[in-house]
Amino acid sequence: MRIQHIENRLEQLLALSQDIENSYDRLTTIGVNNISNARIQTRLSNLKEVWEQFCLVHNAVTISIPELSDDEQDEIHYHVYFTDRIYDRTKEDYLNAIEKFNLLLNTAQNSTNETVPAPLTALPSTQTLTSNDNTYIQHSKLPIMKIPTFDGSSERWLEFKNLFHSLVASKTSLSAIEKLQYLKTHLSGPAFNLVKHTPLTEENFQKTWDLLTEFYENTRLLINTTLQSLFNLKRATKESGTELQQFYSDIMQLYRTFETLECPVDQWDHILIFICTQKLDVESNKLWESQLGSTRKPPSWKEFHDFLFSRMSSLQSFEKSQQKGVLQPAKQPSAKVHHQGQSSYASSDKKSVCVLCKGNHYIAFCSKYTSKPIQQKLDIVSKQKLCYNCLGTHRVDKCRVTKRCQKCGRKHHTSIHQSNYAQSKNKENAENKKESPSNTSAKTEAKVLHSCHENSVGSSILLATARVVVISSTGQSRKLRALIDQGSEVSIIRERVVQQLNLPRCHSHVSLTGIGAKKANKTKGITSFLLKPHFQSNFEVQMQAHILPKLTSPIPSFSHNKDNWSHLNNLELADPEFHERRSIDLIIGAELYSKIIEEGIIKGEPNTPIAQFTKIGWIVSGATSLNSINPQVQSYHVSITDDLHDLLRRFWETEEISITTKTLTKDEQDCENHFQANHSRDANGRYIVKIPFKESPDKLGDSKAKAIRQMANLHQKFANNQSHAKLYNDFIDEYEKLDHMKRVENPQNEPDRVYYLPHHGVYREHSLSTKLRVVFNGSSKTTSGYSLNQLLHSGAKLQKNLFNVLIWFRLFRYVFFADIEKMYRQILAHPDDWDFQRIIWIDKLGRLIIFVLLTVTYGLICAPFLALRAFEQLILDEGKRFPLAIPTMKNGRYVDDFFGGEDTIQKAREVVEQVDNFSAWRAVFS
């Protein structure tokens, strides 16, 4: 995410640079004779403010760059801010504008002195104020008002909107252009990207403001975000007035936000108090409980608020009284140095010092260096023993910078690039010099390479790339550069992007094979996401991609000049910067390629790339004419292979027949004894089982807060995925309607021993029967460090061997198969254990509901044993009633499926009838 932040800052610098460049021209458009002294001073003050902001952002960027990886530094290096030396140009524009403003100011002051004999520092009287002077008084106050920068965070939108509207948008004295400029300079990140290309015109301010309002005025998302902030409140770890004040400020800000969003927060007393008490320090919690005493009536939010405020005030007063009369050592003033130097990519942790003028900047940006001819630059590099590739202070063979000359792609700095004529002269001069024997071989190699470069005109290949927007299921998005490769069987995404967007990851055991049958690293899983073009379009596609830590080196091999490719002008390009060397975060394989390709090809002159029309824009690819030495050839064909050794091992493990008779371990025998001693049947014949604890449940700590947090995160995901939300709601509704769970009537009266099961859904898009499978997590640890599963017996593995089941199934001429629907939930949990199976749910109205699960719950480590053992008990208890069904029940069972048969249709029908009656006997498994 750091590189994305730096790119956003660079875009902000470009906007500020444009503002500085146009500052003087905008003032003089009204005519020099109409410009008042006050207006000049206003613009001059504003210019200085913009320049200070420009320098601050520039310094922040230069400090952040060394923390990037080598690939990321390569990518940033080719940004237009550095390639066009925007800092130098902006500084020159600023100084020129200051000079012009001062000249204009002197002229205006001289004119004033001739007509009004008043001191220069005096303000105009109220009687002689013109409209321009009045505008100055209002404008001059604006720069000192602090408007926070809005970075696209939805929780900060309302604050920014109200403040900006009050201080800027509602001011009639400001022109629409000025309002738009103020707006753009107070945006960053995704919010700035949304409007960065908007021209500064009168009519565009309202359009831009409406666009931001429409984009971020999402009440549902704002509520979800505020809820998440509520559940993630920072805990007060110690008895401190400062910490409690911060906690109080945070909770009250959230409370007011809920009120602004018209949430029924006045009805949330119990929920808010519960969350807050979980976040308070131990001593404050004790005082709160002491204040409540033995009352059984739930406290109100006002009572808790008054307690919190009183507690905060008393702690602060106590801390201040402790500080009185205590002599504190005087603090040494910290030296603050403001740097306005340029960025250096050749620097390490030390500050870059120019070896030519000793200034705090990279030598490539030194005016003394850049003003010299190439030969003198070469002499400086040689004399100072600088790296020919990056101008650093190390030897060229130790250089880690992968950047090359932007003009020829060779390993030297662009500033010392020589034309072919100059290189030929240097070569002739070098050949006339006498060579020592030790240098002969090196010289010969250099001459051969140089000759190849001069006499061959190679071609550089452009591969098809696209700028796309990847959107996660939670609504997070990011622009990526993708390589479109129809030679790849799969799509691949960079692992860093998966982590940044919190994309869901599923296990995937895949090896990738490239050119020459060489295997790449195995994938780190597979993920899915929504993909859209970088421009406004109705096209979007859900895609899956395998995950790798790194995909390719930056492409193309070096940047190109596209000015001569006029046939590409006025096209909606999939990648507007296809000619620039950039890193790749996504490879789009052949499957998606077939979905985006459209009719339409545009060709230019020979040795120019072609453009192919797609649903994500025009993609550009092909050979281009370029003089090049040993271009780095890149091929990205990828296919899938499975590791043969692993496949064979798994095959033989599956085929292996176990002939050993398994004996029960002590843990398994204890679990069996527990089942025999504690199982029972209700009036309808259903089995009731108890959870087999191997350790005391008293070891369980608090699990409710964690379950609430996970439910809140799940609820937020529902807002961004309505189909997922509907499936989950249907599941919960069905669970309750079937009496497999019930609501807790008095959630305030919580027992001492209780466990809340966090839950989440696994969405299976291609499943024909169950699209959503809800998983209950009995392994979630409580505050004591123990989970419920850690305290339970797992029981013996009663599952039949699949091989034996299949052999049994193939013995018969006529066969049948059946299954028990919701097998686990056909077995009841003992009422004593219900509170160990609690779950949290937030309904459609935003109400927090507590349920207890009344049946055996998958997700508990003992659930498979309890379900299968209850079925075996049914065979023991009722088997004599259905003798024909018993062989199938014993030999043909695999989990909840049954396979059986007979040699005649008549016998098979009899067996099927008894199997059906046996399973439904007294509604045990019906």
From TrEMBL:
Segments traversing the membrane: 848-871
GO terms of biological process kind: DNA biosynthetic process; proteolysis
Stretch list, region Disordered: 416-442
Regions of compositional bias (Basic and acidic residues) in chain numbering: 425-436
InterPro entries: DNA/RNA_pol_sf (IPR043502), DUF1759 (IPR005312), Peptidase_A2_cat (IPR001995), Peptidase_aspartic_dom_sf (IPR021109)
Matching Pfam families: DUF1759
GO function terms (MF aspect): aspartic-type endopeptidase activity
Keyword Membrane: yes
Name of the molecule in the record: Uncharacterized protein LOC112466006
Native organism: Temnothorax curvispinosus
